[in-house]
Amino acid sequence: MNLLLPIIAVLIGFGISYFIYQKSITINLLLAFSGSFLLSVTVLEFLPDIYNSGVDSIGVYVLGGILLQIMLEYLSGGAEHGHLHLSKEKTSFPFVLFISLCIHAFLEGIPIHENDHLLYAVIIHKVPIAIIIASFLFNTNLSKFKIIIFLLVFGIMTPLGSFVQANTVLLDDIGLYLNAIVIGIFLHVSTTILFESSKDHKFNIYKFGIIVLGILLALIL
Ligand SMILES: [Zn+2]
Ligand SMILES: [Zn+2]
Q1: Which ligand does the CA of 102 lie closest to?
Q2: Among all ligands shown, which has an atom nearest to the Cα of 38?
Q3: Rounded to the nearest whole angstrom, what is the distance from the C-alpha of residue 100 to the centroid of ligand 1?
Q4: Ligand 1 mean position to 54 CA, how many Å?
Q5: Number of domains comprising the chain
Q6: Residue 192 CA: which ligand is closest?
Q7: Cα(85) to centroid of ligand 1, in Å?
Q8: Does the keyword Transmembrane helix apply (predicted)?
Q9: Separation of alpha carbons 141 and 139, rounded Å
Q10: How far apart are CA 87 and CA 75, in angstroms?
Q11: Among 70, 111, 131, 210, who pairs with 17 as Cys (CB 3.0-4.6 Å)?
């Protein structure tokens, strides 16, 4: 079930984008909520868990995760946190964007099989991102086949990360360090979402309310 949920989240996002998506306030509110909830679960649960591991240098890996995410965003143009800068005339497969998104999605799958709240946070984070990526791709001149391949492979990367962590010994020795790196990724992505959700720093009562709601939900879970 934990492997299926991220796929379902991505499919819901694709479905929304294909059938009903209009660039609207709703997607921005969903994005703000997802960022706030992801940040809250990371700070309240994921971060303390990692620091309780007793490994002194663990904070270095958190910082490494932040740097890794910054580099991934150079490649993706910020698709992980909800915007894309790709020429609409593009007809060749966007490999750089694709690989950057897949690395991000694979890594965020690693910690979610042992923490249900984190699983929910990643799922909620994925829906608006999937909507934005899919609606963007459907608006380019890319062939339907290329788009479907892109979305399918992207969709299975997070469950694949969970699966490799849960069912193989490949990541056993480095699991803790990978989790610390993922914390850095989540900190950067979620704070960037919150930062970019307040356009021109104009106070928006709906956005502020939904951000508070994300924090409250993480607190009562
Ligand atoms: Zn951005
Ligand atoms: Zn993500």
Answers
A1: 2
A2: 2
A3: 14
A4: 34
A5: 1
A6: 1
A7: 10
A8: yes
A9: 7
A10: 14
A11: 131
Query: What residues are neighbours of ligand 2 (ion), with CB under 5 Å?
Result: 80, 108
Of the pLDDT bands very low, low, confident and very high (cuts 50, 70, 90), residue 169 is confident
Nearest ligand, CA 125? 2
The range of the structural domain enclosing residue 211 comes to 4-17+24-220
- For residues 101 and 9, the model is more confident at 101
Q: What is the pLDDT of residue 19?
A: 64
Amino acid at 199: K
Q: Say how many CA atoms lie within 13 Å of 119 toward its Cβ.
A: 16
Given a cut of 70, whether residue 23 has pLDDT beyond it is: no
125 CA from centroid of ligand 2 (Å): 6
Residue 53: band (very low, low, confident or very high) from pLDDT cuts 50, 70, 90: confident
**CA-based radius of gyration for the chain:** 17
